[in-house]
Fold each of these.
Amino acid sequence: MELLDGELELREIQKLEGHTDRVWSLAWNPTGTGVAGMLASCSGDKTVRIWQKGPSGSWDCSAVLEDTHTRTVRSCAWSPSGKLLATASFDGTTAIWERVGGEFECVATLEGHENEVKSVSWNASGSLLATCARDKTVWIWEAQPGNEFECVSVLQGHTQDVKMVQWHPFLDVLVSVGYDNSVKVWTEDGDDDWHCVQTLGEAGSGHTSTVWALSFNSAGDRMVTCSDDLTLKIWDTSQNPSETSGDGSGSWSHLCTLSGYHDRTIFSVHWSRDGLIASGAADDAIRLFTESKDRMVDQPSYKMLVKREKAHDMDVNSVQWNLKEPKLLASASDDGTIKIWELSEVSK
Amino acid sequence: MILFDCGFDNGGDIDDDNDEFPSKVGKYKAKTELHHFCSLPILIRIQEMVVGLLNANPIVYKKKERRARNVPTVIDEVTFTPTIEHCSMATLIGLCLRVKLMRSLPSRYKVDIRVAPGRHATEAEVNKQLNDKERVAAALENPNLLELVDSCLEP
């Protein structure tokens, strides 16, 4: 995929206001309606808002999902079909919303975590859901007919608060990251027997503080993690995912560390289809990284492409590339706003 | 950097099993116990610390900045020295500090809170939690804990 030549910048398209508390997380609908789709945002104001591009071309709030969660909604994720939205809350529950036209209805509530649920993620086929919480566990739920969800496994292993879970883009491999500074890879042995096959970075190449987020590249052979230790780490798996006989855990190893670019906690990281890594940090800035073309001794390296200072008035909590238009980026902040950005060439 | 000296008379039993923000604050409900925990000297010192922070970072508006509505970000660090060893108390005092800062300073202030090094058995754990905004946010959604913090800050 050809990237733009010349100097690039993030151009602010629109600022979305409406939430009355910090916005924690964003999720683009994978199918969406119209050209650029639909965006879900969740907030400390206990609501989830749905944003869509109207006929005038501007983004408007088309729905507010409220009166369900009794505390902060921390994370949201669309099912691969785009018909269901899972929302994870500090109230200990995960709600499942079904989209019927422009309306949303809460069709299920997943209970079980002992305290605040931090993240939720659907697997590639939409058959499994993963959640994680401050109770140090990761739960795997199976989607059944009639919007029923059954917990099939409770994964123990993290020694502290688990901050995020993310499924591999096409394999049933789950990665979790957290307050214990670790990155864990989980797979199934058949018959709902899930276990941790790898804990990344234990031998010194790992993060030295809370790992807040992770993101896979589209090929599924690399992932990036971001941390309170002010670094981004790229990991890759030597195993060719398409050649595995279903195990697919591969053997993840540390590829490189991006340090010196951030001076405050990095809360979010997202890898676009085009190969650009966006980061959102506590210095109110958004940064973009890409793989460096200048090869030295065959060692892959990454460089910073764009730094957008003061992207928001406060911490950036989430950055998410649009799944259909790879130059469109959404960001969410403690300042209660969401911004839509377009990656474009600096006009000379 | 400002040093904050915090004296505390530890009268009652303290649940010291872990260093998480206390979720059960029932034992602190009695008014006399609250008074014990949040003595006036502590509150005065929190107030002094906030004023000190504001004074140490005066805002200088340059013409260009004012037009661009670009207000400079202030990053500072506050260190507090609890004179008691109990971890859960240090965490609670740190939380009161965090809330006071949030309520008193403009949003462009980013403040890191540290327990003075060498004074506390599990200072690294206390620091980590006090500077994890998600943990702080979740703790403050606990109505009992928030009530306790509020009564400490506005007796």
Amino acid sequence: MAKDARDNWENPMQFVLACVSYAVGLGNVWRFPYLCQMHGGGGFLIPYLLMLVLEGVPLFYLELAIGQKMRLGSIGAWTAISPYLGGLGLASVVTSLYLCLYYNIINAWSFWYLFHSFQSVLPWAACPLNANRTGPSEECERATPTQYFFYRETLNISPSIEENGGIHTGQALCFLLAWVITYLFIVRGVKSTGKVVYFTATFPYVVLFIYLIRGFTLHGAINGIKYMFTPKMEELANPTTWINAATQIFFSLGLGFGSLIAFASYNQYHNNFERQAIIVSLINSGTSIFSSVVTFAIYGFKATVNYENCLERTRILLLNTFSLSEDSITIDNVFERIVELNTTHPEQFAELNGKLEDCNLESELSTAVEGTGLAFIVYSEAIKNMPLSQLWSVLYFIMLLMLGMGSMLGNITAIITPLRDFKVLSCISTEVFNGKKKCIVCFICLLLGLGFTTTSGNYWFTMFNDYGATFSLLFIVLIEVITVSYIYGIKRFERDIEDMLGHRPNWYWKIMWAGVSPLLLIGLFLFYIINYIQGGTPTYQAWNKDLGKSEQIEYPLFGQAFIGLLLASSVSCVPLTALYVFCQRRKHAQRHMQQHTVNTVAA
Amino acid sequence: MLERIFIFLFLPSVLAAQLCKPDAPEGFKVRLSIKTALQDEAYEWDGNERFLFQATLAFAMSRHTRQEFNVSNILVCDETPRVSFWFVVTSPDDPSQLINRGKVEAAVRMSRNRINSAFLLSDETLEFVGILPTLAAPVEPASPPWLIVFGVVMGLVGAGIVFLLVSTVLQKRRKKNQEGDEGDDDEEARVKTAENGCRSDGIYNTSFSEDEPNTQM
């Protein structure tokens, strides 16, 4: 038995918490509720849970098994499985690198909002005044104060990706802080990471629970909850629903980045990862559902507040136009009075036509938002209306930070672990250099990531978010599952697992690995390609400050070229490395044959 | 004779009616939202309140122009149940002459606070349509508060890193004193097999192993 020379988690609990902390990330909070809303509320749970069973848990199990068995990072592990497939690990590292570059900017924004919550009046609660102090600034008037704070004061966003300003210093400082903290978390390897995840994995649940209670007691929250739980079953007939469920499970579990392989490589050899895989996947999905209940309570509150404000504005407008006494129209009878006034004073009513808003609770509820818009704009709008808003704001942004940092830990570990194991770099390193690798990786990511703090940084962020990881991951995991099932062989894999766990995986796992999951992945992969081709020029949402809202613009030529580069750079690692290894082996084999002939002759 | 008396009697009110009307060129529309502002303690708009309005406006005009204005110089008309009305200001020297709109606006702006408090209302609930209130300057603290919190957090994190570095150095020194040359740290020796595509369980070909003692940090 060889000496086991690798770091280990102090106990299996740390490993489980690390996986939970990594898998439960911002996507659970800002993507799942959106999908739920778009695809028929409670009915979306059916495709979601089905996909969890068909592809989520089996693929998660697969990655953990590989990591624990090979006890190496992604590059080493795949090279050990088949030398031609070392490129798979390399592709994972490249994708993780892209993710690391842009993910920490979200943490920087969370820090920015967190620091700005320590004021008596939240800065996104009211518009700042314009130059001559006669009213709020125009851009803020046209948009809402929360949008203004996000787009103008946080990002200082430029009108399009082509126009660039300087770096936003506040942003850059928060970004620096985010990277310093990330470095602090990984500086001692799994020893430090293992301790940190106790906090980053559990604290978000505390906050979510507090928010659940707060959310349910908010005025109008019940509207949102009702909206979520009334399933619209006809959405199940729409194929997009199933595809979105599959992709959400896939990305939410963080497959393909190599983080799971890296985490599992620090496990004890006989660790029972089968149970842990099921537990973590279930926790991840459970958290998505839990957070979407909270989000819908908040939605309901926000929609009700907006609706009532709209009614109030309409009431004032009617009072002023028809000069009626103040208590003749109340919020409850606004609509009846509108009809009444239309019949009694038609000419005056006609003048109102442009100004009369259409107040509709349904339409307020159905404005589905996802991503940074949900996290930073919608939630902060709801928070500013709550009593004691500073407290809720601080809690919320600390939760976002925990979620983001936890995922960041997994991402950076996915880069550092293979780098430690990768032969080339360790050959040329000295003792001191080896230890400083983490510092260098963090520093390089920090420098490159400063580009996201410029005025057009948000557009680059969106590009990376939409294209940097999605397509490559599908490709990577597809090759992974085909490799394990057919190239490495299910039988050999079974034996490895039996060696580690003491029992063979049952028929469910084998069917999923060999048949169902690869088919699903191929289907998703094809769908993405077809979508990409049919979609025409890729577009992005640009903030128009004159209109006070976002509009879709096409990416310029260099943007499209960059997207292509992002996709190609990670995907091409696989064939290129295979080619390289093939050439190396042929050279080696030729040399070996020459030596052999010499030897026999000499002998 | 009688006609002359009639004309004299009615002339002021006729004049007033002609001077003060909705959309009068030198007039302003005023809108009060008493019930919205005061809810249960709202007062009724009656003749006394109108008188108070005329008095406060006369006060504002006198203050601004340093001329003596009287209550009769403020003409109010077109009152509605909304509680909105139009008013014009006539010159104290010549009741048929209207004071210029700009002067009235400046006077109202100057004494806006006093007018508001006379009615227990605010800039939003006592509207002079067309006169924008000068909003209070936002309170700008000397140093932005977020920087302070940022500084605190950054300081803590920096202290954490320094602590870690120092503790590592101390650990290394202690270990060196104890055990001499053996590096017994977290990242220990690594053992690798030759490339043959498959890692067999537990049996390693040590002739291909590479021992790399790595130091901490």
